[in-house]
Amino acid sequence: MKNYSIRFYSMVCCLMMVALLSACKKDKDKGVKPQPKVTEYYPNSGGEGTLVTVAGSGFSGSISATFAGTTADVVSITATEMVVRAPKGGSTGDIALKLDNASLTVGKYTYQDLSIRKISPTNGTAGAHVRVSGSGFSSATGPAVVTINGKTTQIVSASDTLLVVEVPANVGTGQVKVTVNGKNVTGQSFKYQVINTIKPLTGGKGTIVRINGSGFENTIAGNSIDFNGKQAVVKEADVDHIIVVAPDGVQTGPLSVTISGQKIVGPVFTMVPPPVIQTVTPLSGPAKTVMTIAGTTFSTILDENKVTINGITIPVTAATATKLTLTIPGGTGNGKVVLSVNDQTVQGPDFKDQSVGITSLSPENGLAGTHVIISGLGFNTTASMNKVTFNGVAATVVSATASSLEVIAPQGLSTGPVKVVTDGIEALAPADFKRAGVITIAGGPGNTSLTLATYRSGSLAVDSKGNVFVIEVEQSRIKKIAPNGTVTLFAGSPAGERGYVDGLGDKALFNLSTNPGMDIDENDNLYVSDGTKVRKITPQGMVSTFVSNLGTINKLAFDETGILYVMGSFNGAWRIDKEGTRSAVSIIASQDDSRPAPYNGHLYKVSNEGNYLDSYNLLTNNSLNRWVGSNYGFADGIGTAAAFSAINGLVSDRAGTIYVSDYINKAIRKINIATREVTTVLQFAAGTNVDGAFNEAKSGSLGDITVDRQGNIYFIDMSNNAVRKIFLK
């Protein structure tokens, strides 16, 4: 028992000793002062009384200074900077400091009439002007030479006490040096600042942007960032990079960094809307399934697109502005597909981690009886073991392989999802199957209710009740087609008489040119270009003159705000408000056959060549030639990658989409205004107007085109003397 007590006592004493020694060490460490250090001093020459700044660290306690052994006054001192005065009667030699018990040599100081007092600003980028103040800069033998970090600058102006120099590109950070008559003086350092790159270059509110460059402050507060004038929040800062968050309301424009009042302008950051997911295919499948995400506003840079399924990141293997490709790793479980493009996030549909999936439908639209090929994986090879429904209505499966089903669209078909159930596993198609087709609503070969020109595009308009109005150009009159297909004369002479007479219905006369235009406002009033006038027709058929003396005019169209744009013949246009007040629009080289498509401050028009569209900015009066399309041909794509042949009709749905009738290609094309992407809605086989599903319909030459408020498309089939409707319901 006694031995145990002795051992316990000894252990306690040891622990107390360790603790005491540790405490003593901490107290000793706490009392250790950092060693003083000099990083820079300036100027290194001058006369008596010159103030010399010594920058560094660890300056504290009792401090004295000497110049070549002569005592100097210490004017001021902080932990990182002290100012000393060159003593009277001093001589050239080293500046030395004594701090408590430490001695420190600063560097050589030369007594001469050449000195730098200060530079301003002390930071900036290439092209900035730096004022070097001092004395002794004049010379009778040659001009002063000023270098920054060893690189010669261009002197903008010079006097004995002031030199103004321009900062050269890529000069780096270093001291300013002046050489006059073989004498040298070094001043304080100039911090060179530059933005080399920003990543990403596109995005929107909340996008995290990394700014790479040099000369930045290593504190968040030291750097002020703006996106085209909008201040941003800095998240991280160092001398070679800054990380910021794009602010609310960010717009396209240069990104700038401001440090100590000096602004450095960097690359343009382009504001783009958040991504849109249109389809994800397939919506189910096992490991190694290749998934395609189609939509808009994706990044073409792989790592700027982040995709997760059920919270698990899936690497993107290929990227365009409208399509992302990735391979499912398996084991994701079931969950949402989420896409983030430069920190702008959109949520897509659910994905199922299973053996059955649908990759595509062909065709993607049609009517009852249409044979549809469903491509995918995991199907039962016995046709009857696969259950297929179109928007809940059962379809007949004609044949089956493991990767393909042939089915017949059922009676009672309506637009909606296509579902396949195989061995109890359910899979959805990536997009709805659309009940869509083409019908003739009036006219046709041998039909005399309409007399449409076979060589002019004509003009169409649709009111809120579904009535369609069409111009009979050669008869200088307007026909009305009721929703049931009944055709009546709406305004103009029954006999085709021409003139300028206001009045009701057939009492009015028009003198329409070869390319008259027509559009309709939100109150169902028609507006018609008639020679040099715009005529207005109420829903009751009362014709009046809205605006006169416009010169020769052709097609016209309303924008989404109710402003009417009227095209001149080949050159110029008019902007007309609801009260009839006009102003000129200085566009040139426009085709007469197609109406303009005004939207969101821009006027889109067909070029005089007829195979591409130009964009005219109505705010800046700047034109973008070949906004969409390039050479003659037939190709979908973005911007100039798309091709048309002889555009004969154009219309904006006033919600971000332009529809085009492509005359020679016999195709209806669609343009997404935001992305400039062209896709084909329908390409007809040539022939007599055959109605039916898209893969069955035939048409002659395409004329004017318009859309109704439900998104249905109407066009003139010129060679078949018909007005036809494309429905997408």
Characterise this structure:
This protein has 729 residues and is mainly beta. Helix content is 4%, strand content 51%. It is built from one helix and 72 strands. An eight-stranded mixed β-sheet has the order 1-3-6-5-4-7-8-2, with no helix packed on it. The chain has a five-stranded mixed β-sheet with strand order 10-17-16-12-13, with no helix packed on it. A five-stranded mixed β-sheet has the order 19-26-25-21-22, with no helix packed on it. The protein is elongated, with a radius of gyration of 39 Å. Mean pLDDT is 92; it is low at 1-30.
End-to-end separation in angstroms reads 98 Å
Strand content: over 45%
Q: Report the helical percentage.
A: under 10%
Q: Major beta sheet, specifics?
A: 8 strands, mixed
The chain-level structural class is mainly beta
The count of strands amounts to: 72
- Trace the largest sheet across and list its strands: 1-3-6-5-4-7-8-2
- The number of helical segments is 1
Mean pLDDT: 92
CA-based shape = elongated
Radius of gyration: 39 Å
